[in-house]
């Protein structure tokens, strides 16, 4: 298992047709870049103050951040 990011999430995002997750300020630009490169539009919303979630991304790998969605395919 990879290590999960320990940062508090600041945004909630939806990967279309796959999953919703939470993300921190550090991973957000990376997620945007990956989505951009794949031509995928992701919905990103600021996390409301009354919702507290940890970032769900994997801390050491830029691309395996997407793995948790599974259901793969190019
Ligand atoms: Zn993070």
Task: Report the uncertain regions.
Answer: none
Total of helices: 1
- Based on CA inertia axes, which overall geometry fits? globular
| Largest sheet, strands/sense/barrel | 3 strands, antiparallel
SS class: alpha+beta
Say what oligomer this is.
single chain
- Counting DSSP E segments of at least 2 residues, the number of strands comes to 3
Strand order of the largest sheet: 2-1-3
Q: Proportion of β residues?
A: 15-25%
First-last Cα distance = 23 Å
> How big is the Rg?
12 Å
What fraction, in percent, of the residue positions are helical?
10-25%
Q: Give the SSE string.
A: EEHE
Cofactors and ligands present?
A: zinc ion
**Average pLDDT:** 85
Topology:
Layout (H helix, E strand, L loop, with lengths): L10 E5 L3 E5 L3 H12 L4 E4 L28
Antiparallel strand pairs: 1-2, 1-3
Quick summary:
This protein is α+β, with helices and mostly antiparallel strands and 74 residues long. It has one helix at 27-38; strands at 11-15, 19-23, 43-46.
List keywords for this structure.
1 helix; 3 strands; 16% helix; 74 residues; three-stranded antiparallel β-sheet; alpha+beta; binds zinc ion
Question: What would your notes on this structure say?
Answer:
This protein has 74 residues and is α+β, with helices and mostly antiparallel strands. It has a domain at 11-60. Helices cover 16% and strands 19% of the residues. The protein contains 1 helix and 3 strands; from the N terminus they run E-E-H-E. The longest helix is centred in the middle third of the chain and has 12 residues, at 27-38. The protein starts with 10 loop residues before the first strand and ends in a 28-residue tail after the last strand. The mean pLDDT is 85. The protein binds zinc ion (ZN). Zinc ion is lined by residues 5, 7, 23-24, 26-27, 55, 57.
């Amino acid at each position: 298992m990879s290590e999960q990011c320990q940062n508090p999430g600041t945004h909630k995002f939806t990967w279309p047709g796959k999953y919703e997750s939470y993300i921190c300020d550090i991973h957000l630009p990376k997620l945007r870049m990956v989505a951009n490169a794949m031509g995928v539009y992701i919905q990103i919303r600021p996390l409301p103050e009354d919702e507290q979630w940890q970032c769900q991304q994997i801390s050491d790998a830029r691309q395996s951040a997407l793995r948790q969605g599974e259901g793969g395919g190019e």
